[in-house]
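Cross-check.
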Amino acid sequence: ISALQETLQSEHCNLNTDYFPSYEIMMDELRDYRFYAEDMIHPNPTAINYIWKRFSEAWVLEETLRVMQEVENIQKGLHHRPFNSESEQHLIFLAKLQNRIAVLQRQFPFMKF
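Predicted model, tokenized:
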């Protein structure tokens, strides 16, 4: 894999590519059985989340990560089921949630919630 990456980045190839070592992370850092699904072949959600975290830290801009986190928090808020949907607390929560959605949609008009 290192040779392939070196070749792809050589002046003859000039593809400006990089390799993210997800396989190596799985084999070296997550080699314990608890990171595998029941079939003992595929990674389980814990391993997938760990590898995604490593990937995003390496390749996703910090500002983009903040936006992604805000979208995730909004999605969780939208899926929240209140005990009392008519309570003042819940109505305040919904108003704040709508405000957060509006702020994001001003920045990114293509986002739909």
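The radius of gyration is 21 Å. The CA atoms of residues 5 and 19 lie 7 Å apart. Passed to J.P. for a second look.
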